[in-house]
Please model this.
Amino acid sequence: EIVINLKIVCKNNTFSSFFFLLLQTEKFSSFKTFIDMKKSLLYVLIAFVAVVFSSCGNNEEIYNPRTCKLYKIWEKSEVGDPYQIFTYEKNKLINIDEYDVIDSVHYKYDFVYNKDNTVKEIVHETVNYTERIELFYANKQVCRMVYFMEDTSRTELLFKRNEETGKITQVVEYYDFAYHHQFEAVHKSAFYNRFIGFTPTAEQLLMQHKGSFIMRCVRDVVYDEEAENILSITETYPEYAEVVRYDYTYNVEEDNFNPYYGLPYVYKGLSGFSKYNKLTESIVKSTYGNVTYQESIAYSYELNVKGYPREIITVSSLNNIPMHTYILYVSE
Model:
């Protein structure tokens, strides 16, 4: 007598279906009967299992690195205190300590998780105020982010995605105008600028225009054919005639992996949503169709043996001065 017990557990879900319940409970009197009566069913199940396993873990925005976990990051030089220190419990990032060189202070950002290991919120507490970012998901992919200052929503981000690939196609940011036009709290918030990011165009518009309405920014996102890297982001402000376009190139022929890939909370510049590191970045701003600003940025990398950058060299066309970023990983 043959009894078949078959269980499949996937990162995305705990799989259960009528067919597997049938196989778990039905007893077959002989191997021959099993072959004759269940062959077709088993072929179907095997094919289905293959599909399930191939899709397990795909498009999940959970930081679960298997090779290199971010540990310390320096700007300009590896001498002195690092600008960021990442602390983990196993593979789960629990906080980031960020050093502000200008103010000579450390900021601590704590991570709170859902039961499925997605980031629920990121919190920054001070003696004077508390700010946090809440993240919301659909199928373990970020669909909404909200920035709170003292329990009041100040910025909201809504994500649209491609139904087939799950990749982001558009992000709409809504700003609380009455709060942001004063700008002091957000402009000085290392926390906000680390995880959300305040663009120069939004800053300019909020400072120039007075009013009480909620301003918005629409970002249209285009991926490459393999849906691995973002090729362009077009940033528009519908209430105004401002458009900013960002174009990126990558070297996908070599192992040059983005250390932020899979970090769903690294929204600033959508820097956590491309698999490979950028080689070039082009920025063109226009007002009423007339170009008012242009900049090109080149990136080069010193990689470790696993294909992750130990040093990132950034050169802007505005000054041609190399800027250095150094990264140390937990595994090193």
Summary: Confidence is low (pLDDT under 50) at residues 1-35, 41-57. Helices lie at 18-25, 31-55, 177-180, 184-187, 190-195, 200-208. Residues 60 and 139 are 8 Å apart (CA to CA). DSSP finds six helices and 18 strands in the chain.
